[in-house]
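From the shared-data thread, chain only:
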Amino acid sequence: MSSFPDEDVEHSTDEESIPLGQQLRLARESMGYSTKDLSEQLCVSETMVASIESDTIDPSIGTLFTKGYVKNYARFVNLNVNEILELYAEQYQGKPSVKKMQSFSQRQQALAHNSYLNLLTFFIILVLSCVVIWLWWQQDTATLDIPPEAPVQLALENDGNVLLPQNNNQSFEPLAIDSNLGQQSNTIDTRFEFSEDCWVKIVDASNAVLAQGMKRRGSSVILTGVPPFAVELGAPHAVTITYQGKQLDITPFIKDKTARFSVPLED
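Structure, as tokens:
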């Protein structure tokens, strides 16, 4: 049993319809070999011989190895090697033409899917960009539309009460002040002019808040009230103060870019 037998084995005309493993097993049995004899001749385990004959070859084993086992098996039992390999390919690998067509179809589907995803991603990015630009434009437009704050003006009634503006419509409500100072309030005139945006708070001698908040560049405040005025400025370098027709120098009162002082200025 150390050499390959030379005798041919006759097979029926229906051989092609018989599974690969069964054809090999029938050929082996007709020649009187056991699975052990075959495993020794082919240098494979009896388990591999049994899986080949039962058409249950483990797919995890490389095709190169299993195809070589089947080829040697067919040659050993004098079967047509080419026909056996074709049958092996049909059983374990499928028809080549069909497999190629399926592979091509899968590639086309993958390309179409990737193109759809790319188009969808581009559309989403485009929409987000438009939204961001629109929000920025709206914010910029809203900033440009803010009108400069109108000068704050105070009015006096005949009885000496000070009228403070309540809104942009310049409606006033009376603010009672000390009757003893009524005549003096009619003679004091103070003007604040702002060359830059500046936070300001002005309180007169009666503790009435005459002005408070952010004043815009180019705006002015004209006060008619009871001196002295307690003044706080957030940007004093941008404020020009005229008191009784004279411009005041507030430089000595500026500390850390802010200023606190009284009008008229204390000596």
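Residues 1-16, 95-99, 152-163, 170-187 have pLDDT under 50 and may be disordered.
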